[in-house]
Every structure is written in C-alpha cells, then in structure tokens.
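Name: UDP-N-acetylmuramoyl-tripeptide--D-alanyl-D-alanine ligase
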Amino acid sequence: MTIHELHKVFLESHSVSTDTRNITANCLFFALRGDNFNGNEYAKEAIKKGARYAVVDDPTYHSDGETILVTDTLKTLQELANFHRKYSSAKVIALTGSNGKTTTKELINAVLSVKYKTVATKGNLNNHIGVPLTLLNIKPDTQLAILEMGANHKLEIKFLCSLVEPDFGYITNFGKAHIEGFGSEEGVITGKSELYQFLLSNHKTVFFNGDDPIQREKLKDYPNKLGYSQDDPNLFKIKSLGAHPFVALESHGIKIQSSLIGNYNFTNCCVAILIGDYFKIPMVDIKIAVERYQPKNNRSQIIHKNDNQIILDAYNANPTSMKAALENFAAMEGENKTIFIGDMFELGDTAAKEHQYIADLAAASKFDTVYLIGENFFNTQSPLLKFKTFGDLSKHLKNRAPKGSNVLIKGSRGMALERILDLI
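Structure predicted for UDP-N-acetylmuramoyl-tripeptide--D-alanyl-D-alanine ligase:
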C-alpha cells in the first residue's frame, strides 16, 4: 500500500493511536516497537477494541481485512504524517530550545486560538513519535499548528524539520540541557540551530529574542526575521515590569499581568505576544489570552498546602533552568524559604561539576532550609542537607515537614519530586 493510499484510509478513520489503552472507534492503530515491547502483539486487541485497521510490520500478525502490512511501522507513521502535513493547508509554527518549550507553545496556542482554528502539541509529545502524531491531528479546518520539537542529540531537529516542514520557527533559548547527547554547550547551540538552517534554506520566517546575543549573532544575516526586544527600537517593543512573583509586562501601552512565576517566563510571554501581533490579533485580545493562561503539569504551579505556599516546578530541570529558578526564588518576597532540588539528568561528564555549582549557588543564596535529593547532589561537597534517595528524604521529613513556609520544588522528571507534596 502506498502512502497516498494509506492516507485515504487515514482520512476515513477518526484518529491515530499507538497505544491499545487509548483505542477509539474507527481509529488507525500503529503497532510500534520499543526496547521492551512489540506493538505487533497488540494488533488483534486493537481491532477488538474498535480500531479500523492495525498497521503492522511483522507478517506473523498480518490478517487480511484487519491489518495493513508495511516494512516499518515507525517510518510509515512518519511518512504518513509528512504526507498529511503537505496535504493540509494549515501553516505550521515549530518551536525548540533548551528551556520553556512547552509553556511557550501553550501560550502561543492560547493567543492564536482567540482568532484561528489551531492544533498544538499535547503535553510534551515532541519527539520522533509525538511530532508525527501531532501532525496527524491537523483537521480540515485547522489554520495554524503549533509544534514543539525536542532533541537530545545533533541532527534530531533536522530530522523533525523534514517531517514538519515549518513555515515559522522559534528557539526559546540555548542552555545546558542534554549535554550528554549534544557533547557540549556549543553542541546544544549547533543542534537547536538546525531549525534556523531549515527555515533559511526554505525562505521561511523566524521569530527571535532580540535581547539574546546568541540569537542575534546566529540571525544577523537572516532576511526573514521578526524579533522582540526591551532595548532595540527597531524590534517589537516589550518591557518587563518584573515578577513579584508573577510576570508582568507592557507592550504598546497595554499592561499584561500573567499567572506565570519567574523572570525566566518573561520571554515565553513575549514571543506569544509577538506572534499574536504578527497574525493580526488585537493587543487587547492578546492581553486577555495571556492573562487567562494557567500553568499546569508541574510547571511553575502555585499550590497552597498546610500554611505553605509551594512553587511546584518539578517537570524538568537542567543547570540553566535550575539557576534561573533559584535566583528568582531568592529575589521573591517572603520569609521561611525552603527549597527541595533534585538531580539533573543527561549531563554526561559534566554532571559532577554542574551539580556542585548548583549546590554552591543554593548555599550562597541563604535560603532558610535546603534539601538536596539524588545521588549526584549527595556526592557534592556541601554543608546542605543531602539525601541519596527519595526514601531517605521521606524518612527525614516525617516529623520535620515545613510549615508556614515559601517552598520551591525543582528537579528533573525522573526524580518525580511532585511526590514531596504528599510529605508536606
């Protein structure tokens, strides 16, 4: 079956699924393989649950009238997604960067959906599987699609761009994330900049942070670019009004008060405003959209519990975002400041140095109490409270949970530090 023929089947189906736990009637099930599973084994289950067809790549599981046999299900999913992207008339905005991708994507979608029919990446499904699934969510009436693209090694963004073929692009920032895969900070910049390379070679438009020296340098000779800045009068002007603790800003005489904590969220708001203006959404409507947006999924959430005000920022962490979170928390008003910070992953040979730097920064910031959690932080030379495992922390907090405190919880996803909420 050709991709063109498979696309006709897809258009007659209601959706695409790669998980039998999420089968819906008349969907198209793709039997993907993983390190510890073989999706082909679940083809019959998918059909029983109501799938229109199961796409398999193992002849053993092929059944005429129920399955579609292909050479490689993942490659077929990706090719189908690219075919559908070309078939659709929707314009596509692609986002990548070291920090803030998901929040930025959500903000852009909140603004654009005021006027347009949009589709956006769900959660952080931003890899070689999630990106195709998002493309396949584009409907006949979709006008704008906002796709988040993640990467932990070079050439990954280049590959995702070949699937997405974006009309517009934005890089949030270049930070110390996924150093293990990229090899160095320069490797991160090179890898993320693959989005710029695609857009340049295809004469597409870049949105950028005009106050970021790396972005300015990378784009100095780029013709199709639109930037925002606090200082450059030639760019879209947006002024920070601080974060006490929520980000406030002003643009074109209109003040916007967000529900996002920390100065590090200022640029995330800026690009949403810039893109909204580019797509001719009135500033008053942009203001309403940004102010209505509420963070979720462990990203800079404010939670009140047992007389504590808790900033839960436990979705992910790297040295850049950890430093920003600590500095922002230190600058915030309030007493009895307690922080729980967990290990940062995928740092390779730099792990020991980066964890020591963050431990030293936390100690120098003079918080009332600091808890370092995880093997990497446990091995630092630090006078702070250190716990090798979450279980050790749990035992310690049994009769010592903070009360009446301002609390920050920050760590990599694998640390699952949102569990601390059950302890305090």
